[in-house]
Amino acid sequence: MKVTRKQLVVVGLVLGISLVLAGGPAAAQDESSPGGKDSGQSGKSMLDFIQAGGVVGYVIIALSFAGGGLVIDSILRVRADKLLPAGVKQQSEELARKGKFTELMSLAQASDSLLGRILVGALPQGQLGIDAVREAMAESGTREVTRLQQRVGYVGFIAAVAPMLGLLGTVTGMIGSFNVLGMAKGAARPDQLAVGISEALVTTCMGLVVAVPLMFFYNFLRDRVTRIGQEASGHCDLLLRFMTAAIAARGASRPSTPREPKRGQPDA
Question: Which domain holds residue 82?
């Protein structure tokens, strides 16, 4: 099933909204009075909860959308069956074993996978010897795995920034509350103080709600990249052994040409 960019964006938006809605308990109705009767005040809606976070809260929500989209995109892209297709692995082994390097290059160019890109970056060095192919394969593999790690690293970056933004909202909210106390001529009203305190608590809640699941997905995807990189390295080593054996067998089967005697000397 092919997933389009628009579908990824939609899923990312849904995931981001669900992350924010996970803080729903903080937006529950006001507590009842000690006598068991409601205080008469209507409960806060989720929109009120979001608005209480202020500008920092909206930034955290935007990061949750971006983080959700990156997680979905990485889960779909960073897969062993996509980066190291079983068919390409099997065909590359057979071609390397038989010494059909031209066909192996064509297979790599036709495969839009991690293994194909590694081989495309390494096989052109074959005219310089198998050692040059080995070095180029190591460099190409390192470059491709680093690219995957950078993609996953964006998820970890958002997971690290979200709670810091929540802390920033906490500080700005408390500053606002103390400003109210400082500007009040008499005793400040509780509703005036509640605005800053609410912003402080809501942004902290938002930051943690976004960061915790993203940190889980970051570690999950990072381990997957490491595992795929190790599998690709092992397969490339196998291909190098097959190619070395094929080159050695080709050289052994090639007939040696007799050396021409020097002029004026009899044949040995």
Answer: 56-246
pLDDT digits (tens, 9 = 90+) for 88-97: 889 988 888 8
Q: Are 61 and 203 in contact (CB under 8 A)?
A: no
CB 213 within 8 A of CB 19: yes
- Please name the residue that has the structure tokens 């839009």: 112
Q: Return the ∠ at Cα 149 (arms to 144 and 155), rounded to 5°.
A: 145
Tokens 């068991």 correspond to what residue? 36
CB 64 within 8 A of CB 16: yes
Residues 84-140: tens digit of each pLDDT: 888 888 998 888 888 888 898 888 888 888 888 998 888 888 788 888 888 988 998
Question: Is 128 contained in some domain?
Answer: yes
Tens digits of residue pLDDT in 226-249? 999 999 989 999 988 988 888 887
Q: How many domains does the chain have?
A: 1
Q: Between vectors from CA 62 to CA 28 and to CA 11, what angle results, nearest 5°? A: 85
| Residue 72 belongs to a domain | yes
